[in-house]
Amino acid sequence: MRSGLRSLLRLVAALVLALQALPLAAAEFKLAATHTLEDSGLLKTLIPAFEAASGVKVRLAIGGTGQVIKLAANGDVDAVISHVKAQEVKLVSSGAGLKRYAIAFNDFLIAGPPQDPARVRGLRDAVEAMRRIHAAKARFVSRGDESGTQVKERELWRAAGLEPGWAGYVAAGLGMSRVLMMAGEMQAYTLSDRASFSVLRERTGMELLVAGDARLYNEYGLVAVNPARFPAINAAAAARFVSWMNSAEARQLIAGFRVGGQQVFFLPQKAR
What we know:
Elements: H1 2-21, E1 29-34, H2 35-40, H3 42-54, E2 58-63, H4 65-73, E3 79-82, H5 85-93, E4 97-112, H6 126-136, E5 140-142, H7 148-160, E6 169-171, H8 176-186, E7 190-193, H9 194-204, E8 207-210, E9 217-225, H10 235-245, H11 248-256, E10 258-259, E11 262-263
Helix pairs in contact: 6-7, 8-9
């Protein structure tokens, strides 16, 4: 009898250990991320690697920064990656998000048609470029979707002391890849992140005309949603994702990601 009880206890203990060793595959992890990460192809590199390392299944929600931050603020996702630091910091200070981690950076650029009717080619002053585009009343396609790219565009217009809205200015309300394609078809200017532009450069016929201004810096931040505010979220999977994104494996994938042989994402000096 005692031998049978001991065998049963050993079996129960083995089952408990086996269950503890299982990855978090049963619980889906909901991640909201920006169009630029999707359109550049970086997520197609990172997400399968995380799933393989963790056993966690990821469900993505893609949108502009304003949209994905709202999903996190409402507790509709478990974590968010976006690229407007002020909004990410606000998410944390509101109590809806935990710590913010800077995970990567690149830059914005102004792309346009080869003819360059506004004569901005080679400028390193993005604000002056916007002034020239406005003065020429050249065609310009804006994201128009409350994205991080549109936030940066508005910053540049404000710095130039201008308000866009001439006949050739189009607020598309679309993601980055579709805006680049639209701008190419219209022979228009647009503001883009470097990675998305590099992916679509040949298909659009657009040229990189303005880059190198410090104001065009573009940093991506990761914030896990606060389980104390939203108990229903998958906090364990979110914590595992944050840990993995700050790991050597993830950082090597980000730094090693190439478009046409060119590095388009860079690492902060250290995760923070």
